[in-house]
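Anyone up for a design puzzle?
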């Protein structure tokens, strides 16, 4: 949702940004956008902040603002503003399910400014690291049922992943990064976000086997750049 455009225009009033680090649960907020397209352009909905620092598996490199403000297709990319009319976030997604209602997510304004500054300076985001894998959580219930540790189950290994060809395979469990215990895919993404491309990290990887007393094996991998100028 974040892009930088340069236009030739005059007499425009720029939006003012507020410090998203000062947000709190229960704070009243407003979402501005065009749900459904131009027929409902400049619609304003209101709600409150339900939580801060939410991690989503779709993008663990951002800690989102969760709100109960109505967010629909067309709101994405629009501002989330506070009672003073200042931008505190950029609306980006919602959970669509019959089991959930009123769960929208916004990128905090501080992160928006950080990303925009990097796009202006480098043309891309220059510091997001990846190992080239996808995964899901092995929770406490599954851990006890299968007699394996909690962690992140590797569900896909990319062709250019540094884990290719080092006796790591899909369905293996990542249980630690540099000795820091990992019990879920969320924790894996959160911990990985502390490192930069080119860093070398040690992964503790467990493979289920008949020998239930086995210990995780360690693999040292060099982190890759998640994005480049062509993406």
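Challenge accepted. My sequence:
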């Amino acid at each position: 949702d974040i892009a930088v455009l340069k236009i030739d225009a005059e007499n425009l009033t720029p939006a003012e940004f507020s410090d998203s680090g000062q947000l709190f649960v229960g704070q009243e907020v407003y979402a501005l956008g065009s749900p459904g397209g131009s027929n409902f352009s400049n619609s304003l909905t209101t709600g409150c902040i339900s939580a801060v620092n939410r991690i989503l598996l779709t993008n663990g490199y951002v800690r989102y603002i969760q709100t109960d403000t109505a967010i629909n297709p067309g709101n994405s990319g629009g501002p989330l503003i506070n009672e003073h009319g200042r931008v505190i976030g950029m609306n980006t997604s919602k959970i669509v399910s019959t089991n959930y209602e009123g769960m929208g997510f916004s990128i905090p304004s501080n992160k928006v400014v950080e990303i925009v500054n990097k796009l202006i300076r480098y043309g891309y985001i220059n510091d997001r690291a990846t190992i080239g894998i996808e995964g899901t959580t092995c929770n406490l219930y599954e851990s006890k049922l299968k007699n394996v540790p909690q962690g992140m189950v590797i569900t896909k290994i990319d062709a250019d992943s540094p884990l290719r060809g080092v006796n790591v395979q899909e369905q293996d469990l990542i249980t630690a990064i540099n000795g820091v215990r990992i019990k879920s895919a969320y924790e894996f993404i959160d911990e990985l976000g502390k490192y930069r491309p080119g860093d070398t990290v040690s992964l503790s990887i467990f493979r289920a086997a008949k020998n239930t007393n086995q210990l995780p094996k360690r693999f040292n991998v060099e982190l890759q750049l998640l994005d480049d100028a062509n993406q």
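A detail worth pointing out: The longest strand covers residues 43-56.
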